[in-house]
Design brief:
The structure is a single chain. This protein is mainly alpha-helical. The protein contains three helices and two strands, in the order ββααα. A two-stranded antiparallel ribbon has the order 1-2.
Amino acid sequence: MTTRKGKIVYPEFGGESQAQEIPLVEGIHTGRERIRELEQLLETARHIRREAERDLEGDLAEADALVRRRLEAAERIRRKAESELRRLRLAEAKRRLREAPVWSPGDPVPPGEAPRQDPGEPAAAAPGDFEIRLLLGKDGPALPDHP
């Protein structure tokens, strides 16, 4: 937006003045609400892009430049929204992990919580765990008792 002799002049949508990468404006929402807001923005950008591509297929030479600017603007919005979504989803995942830590098989075991078992000694099998008993060579039935 520029001013000339007291008048406010707005740049064209997708014009050269908007070609630089301006970060997305922070919304009033945070967390999940902001993610939903950005997903809507991303869908709007996709919709604009589809419409512009459809218009580009027509034979309107004078509309060609406008359509290309709409395509470029939609692409910039898409890139910004996807980048912000990745950042917010990562922050949300980190926040959830801090609030309710969950251990999964690929995660490292914290040093203080390592099991205190001798590595040379096999683990004790539960009485009904026939697979482990069979693998460890323990005496007992090879198959469980079925009713």
